[in-house]
Amino acid sequence: MYVGCQGELIRHKLERQRRERIEQCPEMQEVMPFCLDVTPAEPLKVPSKGFLEVKITNNTANPHTLDITFDSFFFNLNHTFQLRKHWRGYSISADCGYDHLDPKQSVTLKIGFSNKIASKDRTNYKHSRPEGFLRILHFEDDKWPMREPIVPPGRITETRVFELELEKEPKKYKELKEQFEKIKKDQERRVRWGQELEIRDGLVFKICKTVEGDVVESVAPDEQVKAWQVLDIPDDLEKIDGMTDEEVTKWRKERMEKIQIVFEKLGVYWRERKSTITDILKDMEKQVAEKERIVENGKKANLIFEKSKESKVKKVEKSKVEKPKSEAIPPKK
């Protein structure tokens, strides 16, 4: 989570308002049956090597706009949308956009394995199955939507969600499944911390709560520290497993106090920082540890110096006591 975290919270509010407008618009309530042809037929089985090609054809007499959403822990969507959605939710593996189909036109989507995104980075993948899904919605449209947010002007169809399946499960997929289970466990920990993931129209959204349990959608410009506090996630969150709810609350309050200190130290320059709160706290801890190390080394150096000085004094005193008297040299004859 970067410094511009207020934008993340504002998106929650805008999305909720958009959904409310659609629900209140009577013409948006008319839903027609899904009328495009999708091949192959379900289930959509993705090969362990190569791609599954999904063909969508408009066999109706009217132009249609496709609203496509894809997300998978295993696979990647290889497709260039005519209009890509700028906001794709919090799942880094999600892909979504719009395509326009005139009558008798078709579009082909390719789905296959990809390691472009490391599995450890897919922490916000929320779907219950690692194989993922392909979500298709279309609407009659004789005017191409040119900007977002897009509220379809035509009649909406039923939403079709195609569950993806894996033909075979080689070793690499077994390892990915283990990583998937670890991430799901970590998401459960984050819920206890105050961050929950929710799927809306196929996209993943964050629900951020304060220590008191209040949902935070946006913050005032002079309350940026609050945004940092609700979006903060410690790196060692796994230790939450052995904690009671009261202990978790105490730990979170301690983190919030540290974040407050960070903002007080950064002052007006906090906007320029491109680090996470965890990174900044680590830097501060390193600085404190470095100062303690310097002080400790200084004490050791002083101790060594004092011991060395004391040793030299003792040697001098000892030499004075033990120095033999020089014998008299007889005069030359």
Report on this structure.
The protein has 333 residues and is α+β, with helices and mostly antiparallel strands. It has a domain at 25-170: Immunoglobulin-like (Sandwich), CATH 2.60.40.10. It has helices spanning 5-24, 171-193, 224-231, 245-266, 277-322, and strands at residues 31-32, 37-39, 44-46, 51-57, 64-71, 75-78, 83-84, 95-101, 106-113, 133-140, 156-157, 160-166, 195-200, 203-208. A hairpin with a 2-residue loop joins strand 13 (195-200) and strand 14.
Please provide a brief summary of the model:
With 333 residues, this protein is an alpha+beta fold.
Q: What's the mean pLDDT score? A: 78
What is the CATH architecture annotation of the domain at 25-170?
Answer: Sandwich
Q: Counting H and I runs of at least 4 residues, what is the number of helices?
A: 5
The stretches of 5 or more residues where confidence is low (pLDDT under 50) are 1-6, 144-149, 268-272
Specify the biggest β-sheet: 6 strands, mixed
Order of helices and strands: HEEEEEEEEEEEEHEEHHH
Briefly note the structural class of the backbone.
Answer: alpha+beta
State the main characteristics.
single chain, 333 residues, alpha+beta, Immunoglobulin-like, six-stranded mixed β-sheet, four-stranded antiparallel β-sheet, 5 helices, 36% helix
Q: Could you give the topology of this structure?
A:
Layout: H1 5-24, E1 31-32, E2 37-39, E3 44-46, E4 51-57, E5 64-71, E6 75-78, E7 83-84, E8 95-101, E9 106-113, E10 133-140, E11 156-157, E12 160-166, H2 171-193, E13 195-200, E14 203-208, H3 224-231, H4 245-266, H5 277-322
Parallel strand pairs: 1-11, 3-12
Antiparallel strand pairs: 2-4, 4-9, 5-8, 5-10, 6-9, 7-8, 10-12, 13-14
